[in-house]
Amino acid sequence: MKTKILQIDDDFINNMANERMLRKMGIQFEVTNFLDPTEALTFLASTDQTFDLILLDINMPRINGWEFLDRYATFEKKFPIVMLTSSLDPNDKKRANAAELLSGFFVKPLSKDMMEEILQICLVPIHKN
Prior knowledge:
This protein is an alpha/beta fold.
């Protein structure tokens, strides 16, 4: 069995770095990446797939992470979401702490310790090699 992660971040290199870090941790995972949050919303609205975790960036073109959350709130299926962002704005952290749909707020780059904390907070099943 694999841990299923959905990454929504317009930074392709960051997404690759996150996957590399997961491999180094020995976690068996399957990642679905979306560089465009509107495409991720369309996918989530039409798929039967489930995810153990969604990693969501704030600053993206077309719509940002907050707009994604507003639209996602109308969906019937819900998965644990962690905001993983480069934003150091204290207002973003405050807003994230108040957002019911978010399980956490972390500043990039993702580290092994952060990933372990995220998996624990979200009660994500970890499948190791």
